[in-house]
Amino acid sequence: MQSGDPQAKRSAVDGLVAGFRVFRARYYGQHPEHMRELATRGQSPAVMVIACSDSRVDPALVFGTEPGDLFIVRNVANLVPPHTPDSSYHGTSAALEFGVRDLEVTHIVVLGHSACGGIQALRDSSAGTPADREFIAPWMDIAAAACRCDASGAVPEPQSVEHEGIRISLKNLHTFPWIDERVQAGNLKISGWWVDLVDGRLCEIRPDGGVLNLVPAAMETTGAAD
After folding, report:
1. Which phi-psi region, left, alpha or beta, contains residue 200 (left: φ > 0; alpha: ψ -120 to 50)?
2. What Cα–Cα distance (Å) separates residue 153 from each residue in 18, 23, 126, 148, 150?
3. How far does the chain reach from its first CA to its final CA, in angstroms?
């Protein structure tokens, strides 16, 4: 059945309603006191995640968290723009402001992933074949420095651009004065993580250019167990 088929689309929406029933049975049926506390006392997550909008990398699923554990903002390519307080619309910056200044999270994670469509759009643009889109290209300009062609005109590999895009976002976080102040005081930690969708790895992307395996590839884990 084709994805554009109206019946398929209705089935997808029906699946969401069915999923909510499962959610309600689990959390309101088995843990009503927790949900009641979240509803009446509000949220107090310790961690904020800046993630990609990609359907394959849902932070709550990836990290196995519960309602109230994470404050999440998602956008194309998990980018953080520089601090620019003007009259334009700043969804990601507004979420950062609320998470840091109001919720007082103690850790911000910029979560990237392999096979990122936004990063591929940036690579295509660098190669001279930009997509005919109104908003994606200007947004991806935030990470333009991550995708500089070499002297021969070759475009960097996707993984390299994905990692550098995370580092740019980490750098941009420090341009927000109320983030940098908390980092310098030791009250806030910021980290860059990257998920390998093929091998099931979780890596820390360090600002200095290093990469650390936090969770090794699934094949490596299986081999170690054997």
Report:
1. left
2. 50, 50, 9, 9, 5
3. 41
Domains of the chain, residue spans: 1-41, 43-225
Does the domain at residues 43-225 carry the CATH identifier 3.40.50.720?
no
**HEC per residue, the chain:** CCCCCHHHHHHHHHHHHHHHHHHHHHHHHHCHHHHHHHHHHCCCCCEEEEEECCCCCCHHHHCCCCCCCEEEEEEHHHCCCCCCCCCCCCHHHHHHHHHHHHCCCCEEEEEEECCCHHHHHHHHHHCCCCCCCCCHHHHHHHHHHHCCCCCCCCCCCHHHHHHHHHHHHHHHHCCCHHHHHHHHHCCCEEEEEEEECCCCEEEEECCCCCEEEEECCHHHHHHHHC
Whether residue 99 contacts residue 46, with contact meaning beta carbons closer than 8 Å, is answered with: no
Summarize pLDDT for 118-175 with one digit per residue, the tens.
Answer: 999 999 999 999 989 999 999 999 999 999 999 999 999 999 999 999 999 999 999 9
Q: pTM higher than 0.90 for the full model? A: yes
For 42-101, how does the pLDDT look when each residue is reduced to its tens digit (9 = 90+)?
Answer: 999 999 999 999 999 999 999 999 999 999 999 999 999 999 999 999 999 999 999 999
